[in-house]
């Protein structure tokens, strides 16, 4: 197979003593566990902007309650006589908790207010902490909303489809967001594992390897010509061979005016032979094109 | 016509069973309806930053009133005795609404203030909601202001103008913003529809295809030489042929230090033959160049 | 002169009926007045982030006072009995102004507080306006601080300096900020005006045209070989010819991880013949390199 | 040595009269002292976002206390009777300090509140200053968190390792952050100092010079073939020669969708001959790859 476009290791290593998991998961993540990592403050921020909205919301509420309980405790322990205007019908700690909430949020009704050095000092600290907390929440929320991120859906399977006089490997993708991606480039690398668990990498030529506009779906085509590692392979080859097709996509996100990247992979055993993708779009009676996003995985037998 | 620079589908598809609308509207949008789209939280943010200022302002006010009405209702229903210092001359609900406004905005005059567990708890929730609201408004406003966005005006028509010994297809563009765009690149693709409603794509060579500086207008020229699909075509060709010239522009926005994209298209039937663009700029008596933005569409007969 | 690297108009136009000002000022701006421009909300934001700090501060204070005067007037006119807790020793309008300040800034001491529908409603509007104002100030301040912007100082003059066996045109530049610029590219275009006030453009080859690192100054060199428009020109040529060398620099700002652009120009008559730039940096006794930023314009006669 | 890939000065200068420090420190900084620098407001911002978290926190607290002491002094000096509701058991200055804190943070309990023109005016100024302070803190914190910044660890030493039939110079790098870097490019330049303290620069060819994916470590290889400046050099050459290998890395940070740069250098005397890097990653029993970040510097003798 050395006649094909064998390429250097694109970053995954070549020699392994034992069987490894797939290189790239369908969601684009890698099966690598990082040992001995040291975390910086910035990594906390990264973690916060990558949390799901549900967990982020829960964390926000939890933190809001906890920090106010802590300050309530400080007033309770350090300045038990430092609050004026408290309600006598509820406990001092509860009063201090509500006072803390009013201070932290800078609402400051003033019915309850600090008297004496200690409670005034704690309140001063608390309002600074509140400020920093608000600044961070503003920054995290903004980041969560505004980072450019390609949300491209790939067909679940790659297929072997008729193409000109021969065949081709095909997969397709569609932009899941209504924002426009432009100038999309695709790269495909075939990884095959040999007998010694070593990995070999081959470039798969694509026709075309880029498109200017991406308002519809894009079916990426690798023609199976003599130069292709898939030339003259029977369907059993795909089922029996340990291998993976690494897909790398980059484009320009018009909303953020920034380049975005995404990736996925197809295992050889998940390739469907003799199939054709079903059309994803059609024209309605007004001449408007309807793009059916949920048809991204639809294919049918090529014999039909 | 196969001798010309026929190119692959740039992303719009080739085979259609029926007549479709133009590919790109003059404002750069596509005539594609997305069916089966699932929305994420981030799409709400996108929607907010793409709303017109009028609608955004109205939505902001509406949301501000609604959220405070909701909290007023919560005080009214859950804690009808939980506010102290209310005005007896107006209804409790109105009092609660004003108290809610004072809490949500963190003004907290304190004349009205919560007493008891329930109203204090609602006020605590409200001030957290207020914080998140303010953080989002800050982020959305900043995004609305600060996203790089090319605002390039194109001439309403493309024209066929004399050029050297022959003719050329021309259109022109001008930067509508006073910020500087640099290093502008243009691409033009001709789309022709054949008898079977199939679309064919041809590259149109431009001279030059890029400019370094863009302080004035730029007249983009496609010389109609033997290699051009427009070679030796009569004016009736443009009127009778279903086709569209897709224009794609990219440049570097100096204010944001980011690449920006824009696009438009010209229908063949909108091309004006034997015309010349009128000058858009002139020199005043100080040697200063005056650029007349509203002359972008001005052309005159080439026979004059 | 047609044997030289004559190039197309880089965006300034070619034909002018009368004398025009220089194309690019030394600060990189263009001498173009835009007529008929329509302003968007975003342009206000651009204007705010490009104001000098002095004017921006003055504007901020002025706006803060004005908006509070307006709200004071609203309380005064629409709700003259709507404030409780005012000081009787000062006028109602002054009281309303201070109340407005306390509301707009969300301090809300509460000594003064609104009573009745009208003043409560005005206060509600004011706190929303305050929020939007704060959000905008946050965004504008952040933009003013955080936009990547090259601050490159160019030598005041370009010089004709000895180079190898012949001569060269040279200018130099230095990064004025302590942030790092990397991968700097330079382009130089000569513009000459002919008898008909028409402009001709020539590329000037640079050696090298880019550098990887930019911790020191960079002397950009155009060797005056046979292919150069300056070949065999006497000093009088520079003094008597109407022409301008357009300089365009781009690099990568490491702090912002973004490409930045800057530009300047040299008039032919400002070129100094037979000169050499004086060194801008030296090594101290520790082996540390001292870069003297204020020597950027220093040159001496080449005969010394 | 002129037969090798001698290149132009990449930006460090060539002629020096005396010995200089290394060009690039291991952390990527340059040994250049800038003399005569003028600072802008933006440079303060840069300084704030580059401070360590510890110093930044201390500065924040210090500034918060100082600005409130200043305003306390203003109330004390200009308006000694301007605060109502103060505690008689503590000094007026302390009262004014706490009042200032309540105003600056916009908490505004209201127990203490200004009366008369002067204290109201000071409070109005203070709340505007507070606003600007909060806006700046929000911006600085956001910048500190959100700027893309490559945190790539390089092996402490470069090594001379066996490679194919001959030898190669190798160093390796690993991404210290859990965010993904893609499309990594490496450049290596050898700087040699000749007898006159002049610097000569040579390009070192790398195999490969880029990788697509970077989930693991990357060992960058310069094969020592006939074209290499290291061809047929004995270990003593590295020990005795004054020289430095400049390393420049760029890649695409997927989290921020921006290009990031980093750099380092190796002194020739720090090169270890006849060594091999120990593997940094292994496969666990699940097929998951374990990447040991703390093994980045591990190498062993090549004779083993």
Textual characterization of the structure:
- Four copies of one chain form a homotetramer.
- The first copy, chain A, is an alpha+beta fold and 304 residues long.
- Chain A folds into two domains: 41-146, Helix Hairpins, CATH 1.10.287.70; 149-301, G protein-activated inward rectifier potassium channel 1 (Immunoglobulin-like, Sandwich).
- The first copy, chain A, has five helices and 17 strands.
- Chain A has helices at 41-50, 53-78, 92-104, 117-146, 235-240, and strands spanning 6-7, 32-35, 83-84, 113-114, 152-154, 159-163, 166-175, 181-193, 199-204, 210-213, 218-223, 243-253, 258-267, 275-277, 281-283, 289-292, 299-301.
- In chain A, strands 1, 8, 9, 10, 12 and 13 form a six-stranded antiparallel β-sheet that branches. In chain A, strands 5, 6, 7 and 11 form a four-stranded antiparallel β-sheet that branches. Chain A has a two-stranded antiparallel ribbon with strand order 3-4.
- In chain A, helix 1 (41-50) packs across helix 4 (117-146), helix 2 (53-78) packs across helix 3 (92-104) and helix 2 (53-78) runs antiparallel to helix 4.
- Chain A is elongated and about 90 Å long.
- Chains in contact: A-B, A-C, A-D, B-C, B-D, C-D.
- The interface between A and B is large, with 66 and 72 residues.
């Amino acid at each position: 197979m050395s006649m094909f476009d064998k390429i250097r290791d694109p970053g995954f290593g070549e020699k392994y003593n034992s069987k490894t998991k797939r290189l790239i998961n369908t969601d684009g993540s890698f099966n690598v566990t990082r040992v001995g990592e040291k975390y910086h403050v910035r990594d906390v921020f990264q973690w916060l902007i990558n949390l799901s909205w549900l967990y982020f919301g829960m964390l926000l509420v939890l933190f809001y309650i906890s920090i106010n309980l802590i300050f309530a405790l400080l007033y309770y322990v350090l300045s038990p006589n430092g609050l004026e205007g408290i309600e006598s019908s509820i406990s001092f700690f509860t009063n201090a908790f509500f006072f803390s909430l009013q201070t932290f949020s800078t609402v400051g009704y003033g019915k309850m207010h600090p008297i004496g050095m200690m409670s005034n000092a704690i309140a001063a600290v608390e309002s600074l902490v509140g400020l920093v907390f608000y600044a961070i929440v503003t920054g995290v929320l903004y980041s969560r909303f505004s980072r450019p991120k390609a949300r491209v859906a790939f067909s679940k399977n790659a297929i072997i489809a008729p193409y000109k006089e021969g065949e081709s490997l095909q997969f397709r993708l569609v932009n899941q967001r209504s924002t426009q991606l432009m100038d999309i480039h695709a790269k495909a690398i075939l990884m095959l594992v040999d007998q010694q668990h070593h990995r070999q990498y081959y470039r798969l030529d694509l026709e075309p390897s880029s498109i200017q506009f991406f308002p519809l779906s894009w079916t990426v085509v690798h023609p199976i010509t003599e130069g292709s590692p898939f030339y003259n392979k029977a369907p059993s080859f795909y089922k029996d061979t340990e291998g993976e097709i690494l897909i790398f996509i980059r484009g320009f996100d018009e909303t953020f005016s920034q380049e975005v990247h995404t990736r996925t992979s197809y295992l050889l055993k998940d390739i469907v032979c003799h199939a054709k993708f079903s059309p994803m779009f059609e024209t309605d009676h007004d001449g408007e094109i309807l793009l059916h996003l949920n048809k991204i995985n639809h294919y049918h037998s090529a014999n039909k």
